[in-house]
Amino acid sequence: MAAGGESSNKVVVSFTCQRCQCPIILDHSFNSIDEHTLAELHLPLYAPPPLELGEKAVDSGVIDKYVPPVSDNENHGFTIVGGSELTSQQSQLLKTHMELFDILSNNTEIDHPLCDECCDTLITLLESEQRAAEDECKQYEDFLKKLESESDTEDIETLEAQLKDLKVEETKLVVELRELKVDETNATEALESQRKQFRQLKEQEEEFMKEYCRHKRELNELEDYSQSLDYELRYAEAQSERLEKTNALNATFHIWHSGHFGTINTFRLGRLPSEPVDWNEINAAWGQCALLLNALARKINFKFSNYQIVPFGNHSYIKASIAGFNVLADNSELPLYASGGFSRFLWDTKFDQGMTAFLDCLNQLQAAMLERPGQSGFALPYRMAEKGKIEDTASGKTYSIKIQLNSEENWTKALKFMLTNLKWALAWVSSQYVQEEIVGSTSTNTSTISKAY
């Protein structure tokens, strides 16, 4: 219950709906109810049936529905939410209204007051309950009429025959039930046996699966190892094929040029006033040339006439002899190295003799190459003459390989031409070596095939 504002322009709200809690504005006719009307309203609307408590009440289907009133404090009934100072007239009216709603609530199972919407909803619900009760009552009446119309006399013999048949059928069903119970017991035992066997098979399956996984892992490891070996074999075959195609002489001795200098394995051969190459580098280059020329001669089974090249790093030299006798007696070793200083070469000509002997050995190697069948037209690009001379066939100029009475520029150019001839000789020997290998492998395969047949 709530009270509105004290202003005359505002509507006083004293009650709320006990269902939806909405404020209710009462009709003005509620203000004119006298005591006689209230006394008549106190009379019961209908005589309620005696209320039975306990198990009988539950069995009979009577359920007491109690809807407590809405209140925000400990007091029951309606709640006053208006001002605390009410006039005596308002108190009297409010008391009358409260008494009226208490009468309505006591005579019904529904708490009052209710708003219009809740009243409509309640009426609809009561009407549906009324229709359901009327339908149920009609069904009872129809059933009662049907019972009254049926005859009370029945054929007893027919019923006894039916009873006898039912007892025989009951006996059969009991026997069948016993058999089914026996079958059920046997089936249960068989099922338990099958379950036990299933558990055993499950354990065996797990063991087999573990064994399978172990073998599968070993197989994968073996396959990985086999694949790894296959890759290693392919790599080894590729390396072998590459090495077979690679010429050891070409890979070992790289002859090229660097500006005005000829180089062998990056060692420069020669000197210029503008670029004074260290003599250790020149001696190392001569050692590489001596090693290469000696290797080419051995490759084609050729021996130099009157000379023997001794590769000894940056102190390589050439032994000179005629018919087993030394040309220079005690000084038969012709060095391919020097310590520097052109003034020294004016008095010591062994270095010049060694370079001249090296050029003569290269010329002998060219002659040996020409003696090979099918090589009559072969020639090195620069013609080598006697006494350490090398000729540029393009310009016709001749350069001396000696240092004595020679300029550094001409000496360097002569050494460059000599390295070019040496590179050509290396290429020729390499090509001959490859051809011999091809012929040798072909003959080997042919002999193998002939032996197989």
TrEMBL record:
It comes from the Eukaryota. Signal peptide: none annotated. Residues 243-431 form the Atg6 BARA domain. InterPro entries: Atg6/Beclin, Atg6/Beclin_C_sf, Atg6/beclin_CC, Atg6_BARA. Residues 113-239 form the Atg6/beclin coiled-coil domain. Keywords: Coiled coil. GO terms for molecular function: phosphatidylinositol 3-kinase binding; protein-macromolecule adaptor activity. Residues 130-211 form a coiled coil. GO terms for cellular component: phagophore assembly site; phosphatidylinositol 3-kinase complex, class III, type I; phosphatidylinositol 3-kinase complex, class III, type II. Pfam families: APG6, APG6_N. The keyword NAD does not apply. GO terms for biological process: autophagosome assembly; cellular response to nitrogen starvation; late endosome to vacuole transport; mitophagy. Belongs to the beclin family. This is Beclin-1-like protein. It comes from Orchesella cincta (Springtail).
